[in-house]
Amino acid sequence: MALLHYLSYVGSIAAFLFMTLSLASGLLYISELIEEYSRSAKLIGQRGTYLVIALHALLYMFDSFPLPQILFSILCHAVYLQNFSSTWPLISLSSFSFMASCILAVANHFTWFLYFSRVSREVRHSYSRHRGPVTEAPGFADIAT
């Protein structure tokens, strides 16, 4: 079994390397498409961002997500839209909108991580007190979405 154990490490490393190379190749291909079809890419990017803003509003209405986090996410996406300026696809890495987008992307993910970890912790805590879950904890797929 020792050889199998070491082979599993080699297989895991190989899979990680292949996934990394595939992701890098895909991102390079997408960047070339954006350069070649910049007008279409800008339109798709803007419409996609508006769609995400609409989905946040729907999550608030139908799933009762907390309003402060929803409003913060919408604000973040409004800042992301500023990167689709008249100079698209050229984005200055020192511009306020780009730096704010990077900071807000991390802050937005961290905010939602804290929300879902609190909800999961509350469900686990209620489960231990009442011998069964009072509410259903969000699954991995729900949180990842």
UniProtKB/TrEMBL annotation:
<keyword id="KW-0812">Transmembrane</keyword>
<dbReference type="GO" id="GO:0097020">
    <property type="term" value="F:COPII receptor activity"/>
</dbReference>
<dbReference type="GO" id="GO:0000139">
    <property type="term" value="C:Golgi membrane"/>
</dbReference>
<dbReference type="GO" id="GO:0005789">
    <property type="term" value="C:endoplasmic reticulum membrane"/>
</dbReference>
<dbReference type="GO" id="GO:0030134">
    <property type="term" value="C:COPII-coated ER to Golgi transport vesicle"/>
</dbReference>
<feature type="transmembrane region" description="Helical">
    <location>
        <begin position="50"/>
        <end position="75"/>
    </location>
</feature>
<dbReference type="Pfam" id="PF04148">
    <property type="entry name" value="Erv26"/>
</dbReference>
<feature type="transmembrane region" description="Helical">
    <location>
        <begin position="6"/>
        <end position="30"/>
    </location>
</feature>
<protein>
    <recommendedName>
        <fullName>Protein SVP26</fullName>
    </recommendedName>
</protein>
<dbReference type="GO" id="GO:0006888">
    <property type="term" value="P:endoplasmic reticulum to Golgi vesicle-mediated transport"/>
</dbReference>
<keyword id="KW-1133">Transmembrane helix</keyword>
<keyword id="KW-0472">Membrane</keyword>
<dbReference type="InterPro" id="IPR007277">
    <property type="entry name" value="Svp26/Tex261"/>
</dbReference>
<comment type="similarity">
    <text>Belongs to the SVP26 family.</text>
</comment>
<feature type="transmembrane region" description="Helical">
    <location>
        <begin position="95"/>
        <end position="116"/>
    </location>
</feature>
